[in-house]
Structure formats: C-alpha cells, structure tokens
Here is the input.
Amino acid sequence: MIKNFRIEKHHAGIVAKATLFKCLRYLDKEVVETPFLLIDGEKLREKVSLIGRSIRNSTVFYAVKANPDREVIRFLHALGTGFEIASEGELELLLSIGVEPAKIISSNPVKSLKFLKLASTTGVNRFSFDSPDEVEKLAHHIPHCDVYVRLSVPNEGSEWPLSKKFGVELDEALALLCRARDRGLNPAGITFHVGSQCTNIYNWNIALEKAKTLWDMAEKSGIRLRLLNIGGGYPIAYTKSVVSIESIERNINALIYDKFPEDITVHLEPGRAVVGDAGIFVTTVIGKAKRSDENWLYIDVGVFNGLMESVGGIKYSYIVETSKQARHKKQWTVAGPSCDSFDVIDKNVTLHEPQVGDIVLILSSGAYTVSYASEFNGFSIPKTILI
Amino acid sequence: MIKFNEKAPYAPVEYLYDVEEILYKGRSRFQEIIVIRNPYYGRMLLLDDVVQITERDEFFYHEMMTHIVMHSHPEPKKVVVIGGGDGGVVREVLKHKTVEKVFFVEIDEEVINVSRKFFPTVSAGMDDARVEIKIMDGADFVLNRKQADIDAVIIDSTDIIGFARSLFTTDFFNNVKNCLTKDGMFVTHTESLHFHKDIVIEIQEVLKKVFPVVDLYTAPIATYPGNWWAFAVASKNLSPREVRRRYDISTKYYSDEIHRQAFMPIGMYEKLMQRKLEW
Here is the structure.
C-alpha cells in the first residue's frame, strides 16, 4: 500500500518533482527504518553541471564537509568534480575512493599537523592560510606548495556567517603573501567566504572589490597572483525560493571579468548548493503532546542526530504522511527524540496532523545534517542512501 | 464572471478559466470532484482542482492514450483500462472490432457517476456488454490477475506523485508484464516534456528494467500545463512504432499517419535518455 503524503503548492518551490517522485517511490517499495537521508543522484548531477557554468575559467571543488557520505563522494568523483577538504579524515576518505590529489584543495586556514603530514606524502599542494604560524607549518611540511590567503569579507545576509573565525584584513593579507614568498612557498592567490547560504548577492560585490584591492597591492609588491578562490555560499531553497545560481554567477562573472586579468583561475567550493536540495530526510513521528496551548510533535531526528543547523536559524519545509481525511492544519512545535530541552527543531510550523508512526519528510536536508550528527542520548547517526 | 484558477502544485504556470456555471461539486473518499462550464471548452472535469478533461478537446488525450497500443498490437482482444473514470479511454477501446473484453478498473466510483451524468458522450461506452467495471485499486487488479491473457493495459491516472503513485511502482510494472500476452502492450501517461523531462526519463528507465521494449510518444494537450505530453509505452517484444492493423476507425486526431509521427525521432530519443537535451 502506498503512503499518502500532503504535497502542497509551497513544496513545489522547494523540492523538484522528480526528486520527490523518486523519494516517494523508494518509500513505497522499501520497508525502512527511519531516520535516514535520501539523496537523489540525478539532482546532484544537475547541480554539478549547473554550478560554475556561468563563470569563465572556473573549477568546482565540492566542500566535503557538507556531506561526506562515501557513495555521494564516489558519485561526484565519477562526474569529474574536485574536492575541498579540511582534515586528515576527509583526505583519507578521498584517497580510499581513488580521488587524484590534483583534484583536491584545502581551504581550512588552520590545518592540523596530522593533516599536513598526510597531505605531504600524497601530493596535495594547494592550501589556504591566514596566519604567520600557518606559513611556518606549510613551509616545514609541504615546501613550495601553492598558498592562497583568506581575506575577511562581510557575511551580512548569510544565514550561516563564517568570517569571524577566519580571514585577515588587507594589510595583513599582503604581509602574509610576502612572508609566504620569503619562506619559499608559492603565493598563488586569494580566497574569501561570503558565508554559507548567502542570499545577499551584494556580498560577492564587496568581497570581489576587496580581493581586487589586495590583488593590486600584491602586484605592487612584486607578487603576481593568478588564483581567486571565491569559496561557497550559494543558497538553496528551504522554506522560500532564493536567487538563482545563474543570476549569482552572472553577477560574479561580470565582476571578475571587469576587475581581474583574463588568464585568472577561479575556484568554487560549493557544498550546500551541490547536495542540499538533493536530500530528503525521512523521519517518523514518535509522539505528540499538547502542553498548555502548544502542540508538540516529536520525530526521530533532532538537533543532535541531524538537524543541528536548525539551532543556527535554518528553517526546513516538511511533508507529512496523513490520511486524506485529515483536513485541518495546526501549528506545531517540532522536536527531536533526545531528552535535552535544547532539542527543538522548529516552532510555529503549520502542518496537517500526522499520527504516531507516520512519516515526516524534511526537505532540502542533504547538507550539514548527517555530517553534524552525534549519537547523543543513544540515538544512532542516520544513514545516507543515494538513489 | 467567476474564474477557476488551476493549482497543480508543480506547474510553473497557472491557468485561469472563465466559469459560466458550477454544475457539480462533491468530495469522494479519494478526492474533490468538480464539474464547471467554460465558454470555450464546454464542460470540464476537475479532480482536486486539476483539469482532467474538457468536452471540447478530450479526444486528443483519449485517442492518443488508446490507439497507439491498439494499432501496434496485431489483434487486441482483452484490454485493461486503469483509471480514466470518465470513460473516454473505454469508449476509444471499444471502437476496435477485435475487442472482446474490457476490464475498466477505477478506484473512485464517484468519478464514474459524475461522468455518466455530466459527460454522456465521454462515458458512452461504459454500459457496453464487453465492459466489466471493477471498483478497486488498479495495482491490486494486476497483482491478483494470475493468467497472462491481457493484450493491452492502459493507465489513465491522476498525477504521479499523488495517490495514483501505486500505478508507477516497479512492482506494479512487473505485475502488468505478468498479465500481458507475448504481444501485449502497456501504456501510461507520464509528464510534460517541457516542464518535467527528468520524470519522463525516470519512468522510461524504470520501465526498461521491466520490459524489453520501451518507447515514448507525445501528443499536444491544451489544458495540461506544459502541453507537450509524453506517454510511455512498453511491450514484451513488439515495437509500438509500427502500425500492424488497418486504420479503419473514426477518430478526430489519431490516424496511422499521426501514429508514426507521434514517436520521438530515434536520435532525439537517445539524446533525451542520455540527458543531453538541455531545456
């Protein structure tokens, strides 16, 4: 018997019909134990072919942290994508799949010694940095490698701002590039990150303007840069539609064309934009309660085992399994399975009332979900299934 | 004049129809059923606010849903129609003299009743002695059919992500195959090639895992968003592209000539399946 889901107009802007169709077909066929994350391979293929298409001289390096599932990585590798990593664990994963070191970069400005040692033996040789200590570490472990300095740029308008932890201002960036050169490294370029899930298209304008200033400053100091790594940040639709990747890239491409030399190399590091809207979390209602005026819905995935980003402000869209007879909607507070009061995913969610045991689909949940999950309170980390 | 604004969740366009009169409005166990009258299209049947047929142009869909498989089969005698509660496909099937038996399997009896009352020219064939009406889920019908004696199975369902999904599972396709004769043919509507080509491809791929021969043809449907409608057709060995019987029935759009040109050129079909058609 097929399951009956409430699919409404507002879902159409969030999840592709083909992705939903594949997901529902999977649920109709398989007897499955929730929670788990379904990833639509065709959607991945579509996103990989879209991203970078409108930016000349660009190469895409998938940010492995977004979803490091082995099958997902294997699939992306087969599509020819490069990878951006931060740690020895991510490097080991890529090597075990057979990813060539030439397709790997690391934009983590502060790398562990273990990672550097492993990288030095494998031939990975493009790294970001933003401190004198990192120059010393790189010079010691991977002499002559290519390095690109992390510039701090505004993250306003991003739902997941990043810049405070990393990045330096112009003068310091220049000093670092010079220092890298003096220590025998190859100062290749500049990187920045506008913040993940960036819906403010002007962040790229400001960032590229600042990068251009540094580019010229370097040139005056005798350093000819050639690489611009523009990080990630492309948004996906969670509860409302977002500016399209084509429009963002057309803007970026025009700015780069305007400001930088013709032979520039551009690197992109999308993570969320590649895997986010290809993913649907499949969860089950484990309980319901009415506490004063509040309707609580408890599902088997929560803040600790997959939906950590809800704490940072990401709001998801839900499709609930209900009988056709359930005509009325209610406002719900959606919570995870653990005993921690912090484990609340969302408030004021309008949904038809499901029953205990019914499935709840959480849309656009392919990125930064399972990769954040812990086994807190004994709830296991959900599996990722590529379909 | 009041208007009807169609809200198919996944259509990137919305159609707005003038409504001269609401002739019927009711809710069955499965869906909301409405019949309106529009000055151009005449009577229109709406299920859950999505246009199914109109008096003026229903023949495009019904003829193209039916006659491709009926003419590529050398001698169709037993036919199963699943869905299509309005009766349009059954009417078309009965135009073929070879037909001895039609199992008309509809899950929602209310659609049949409404069609009898408001679309007499569409539901005309329902009472023919060769027709056996079964009120049940089509998926259960093919599951329980133990002998391989059906010459054609025709699926005329509502949207593939709604409750008609039971007619798009791999199990269902396998069960259909098991009840078909060796020359048996299967056809189902898929989606718009303009708007949902990825789903059209997906269904082709799923069918290819079940049937040796899978193909695709299209027809222009004015009221379905995306208009360029794709039909997936599959068989155990015969190519549906070939017209194997003389065309001697009365139709408005379908003909043996249309039959041959309705299929995608082979080169384009291959490009589609390799996902090289970019739009």
Notes: The radius of gyration of chain A is 22 Å. Chain A has a mean pLDDT of 94.
